Amino acid sequence: MFTGLVEAVGRVVAVEGRQAGTVLSVERPLLFTDVRPADSVAVSGVCLTVVTSVDRGRLEFDVSPETLLRSTLGRLRAGDRVNLERAMAADGRFGGHIVAGHVDAATRLEGSQRAGDFWTYTFSRDDSFARYVVEKGSIALDGISLTVAAIRDQAFDVAVIPWTAERTTLGDRRAGDWLNVEVDVLGKYVERLLFAGRSAGGTDRDARLRDLLSGP
Description:
By secondary structure, the chain is of the alpha+beta class. 18% of the residues lie in helices and 39% in strands. The chain is built from 4 helices and 12 strands. A hairpin with a 2-residue loop joins strand 9 and strand 10.
């Protein structure tokens, strides 16, 4: 599990195609000296397993066809920068929100506006994840824990502080770029529990609860 608080930005060293999948090599940040094979690392929001440490300066990951299809990792090239976060330690601080590293979709950056040192980024909101985007709710974009500032017809805004823009890849992004999206997993579990009751016949209590959550 991760929290969406990016620890470091690494640079892609190599992307090697294998049968069906890919081997992704990323430079090892100084902070990641404790990372070993079999450890989990979020790479731009995608939970990957370290398969080997080629040397002290590099981490290698196998990337499956499903991950390449669902995320933006298939677009990476040598030299690209990626957000990195180690799996959360049991005694660590929970500063962001629950991030599993299981990407739901990709979203397109539609544009950004600057106000002083602060930014507002606008992203596309398609039907595959639109219902989970809640104003003032949490969302992970390229592994960054962010708060939804506003919802538009087919888009949503996030407000970005200078610290985030400077210490993640978000400051590199331009209109037209694609980012990985992971919605708040709690919303998906609530939806599954509510509508599982409907498919199984459900109860009056289930119906009342659904009506309450759906609003007027």
